Amino acid sequence: MRTTTVHVHPAYQVGEVNRRIFGSFVEHMGRCVYTGIFEPNHADADSRGFRRDVAALVKELGITVLRYPGGNFVSNYRWEDGVGPLEERPRNLDFAWRSVEPNTVGANEFLAWCRRMGIEPMLAVNLGTRGLNEAMEFLQYVNGDTDTRLPQLRRSHGWEDPWNVETWCLGNEMDGPWQMGHKTPDEYARTVTEVANAFHRFDDKLSLIACGSSSRSMPTFGRWERVVVDAAFDNLDMVSAHAYYEPIDDDVASFACCAEDMERYIRDVAATLDHVAAMHHSDRRLKISFDEWNVWYQSRFGGENSIGMEHAPHLIEDTYSVLDAMVVGSLLITLLRHTDRIGVACQAQLVNVIAPIRTEEGGRAWRQTIFHPFALMSRHARGVVLDTRCEGPAISTQRWGGADQVWTVATWDAENHDLVVFLVNRDLHERARVRIDLRAFGDCKVVECLALDDEDIAAVNTADRPNRVEPRNATCDITSGILTFDANPASWNCLRLKTSSNEDN
């Protein structure tokens, strides 16, 4: 067993914990909406058709932001088909996921559910098969408060007050050839400039997100961001980034360390945004909306044309293991490490579709393994993010080269004297002895020490065994300001401490 020393100091601050990092994503895809959050015939459905058992798990998960309605779905979506009397709403074919969309849930139903749940909505507009006019009309319908046609239409549908949605995604993955209406960098730059300008004419306080390249591996990556941001710089707040991870060619060691890729991705996008700011002689620092990220076993997915044209098909319902939970925890650590540049982040998706929550139609709902690191980090990450520094061994990987065995971040709530260290041992075979230097915080006491691990890193949770994998109490020791903790292989860990009340320490 090798040793890693983690240095934590209250002076080394990255920035305030951005609570919007703990966002998620609801798309009209597979069973995320229908038989996911919404199932009117379920025994535990509320009066509006939304499942209470799922809502309870969503609250426990600690979601702060929800992106809607897509994703690929949005690029051929007609928002007006999802509003008004249910009996008048058309059934449409969604080209993205080759599914039948009944429009039973639309913008108002989703926004009302978010309000009841205390979650901030984040809406996307269709810039694939539609454009400026339709986006402006959607904005007016949702947020308008004037005595004009579209706010009046919303009122006639039973929603008197504007929703006042603050954050808007201007399209989705517009450089992807799989996207309905995908565009060149110059084509999208022209579109997003027009839409962003119009949206800020309506309300200059809106937060607007332009599509970045669909992934770091796209041939358009880098140039796309530069061209788009250069064109619309004055009216943008964020640029999107998307990343999904799985073992490639059975290279599990590289998969365990895929946070290395996310780390580089964030730095590359931030560098491009800052380059454009310099070109504009501006001190503005645009942020990154990491609004799709997760573990997704895409190699198991047969592609869109493998999907039968039906309503709410079982689509990419990955069952997650202990190893997957460790990876998800490491990606959340990475997002927190960059709290100063991440404006919002959304794990894709919320229910059933590569999700922390699974359901049976008409039956049970349960937590997947990846549920636990997200819920605990959302619950306990408060105050400021501290820049932890590690001295210890590295793991050799094929894709990323040397990667630290132990991956960490810490948050400190000085007002309440709460210090939390989140860490993963990314080694699949060897335990890690972790020494955390806490001397700068005075006397520290351990409040809780939790570990998510298992002798079988392939272990999963199912409807029949929903608690097969869950956090367990672990042990650690503090002597002379040094906390010692042994992290099991492929483990995610949460160490909660009370610091001295003397802030001068």
Automatic annotation (TrEMBL):
InterPro entries: Alpha-L-AF_C, ASD1_cat, GH, Glyco_hydro_b. The lineage of its organism: Bacteria, Bacillati, Actinomycetota, Actinomycetes, Propionibacteriales. Its EC number is 3.2.1.55. GO terms for molecular function: alpha-L-arabinofuranosidase activity. Homohexamer; trimer of dimers. This is non-reducing end alpha-L-arabinofuranosidase. It comes from Cutibacterium avidum. Residues 291-491 form the Alpha-L-arabinofuranosidase C-terminal domain. Gene3D superfamilies: Glycosidases (3.20.20.80), Golgi alpha-mannosidase II (2.60.40.1180). Belongs to the glycosyl hydrolase 51 family. One of its GO terms (biological process) is polysaccharide catabolic process. It catalyses: Hydrolysis of terminal non-reducing alpha-L-arabinofuranoside residues in alpha-L-arabinosides.
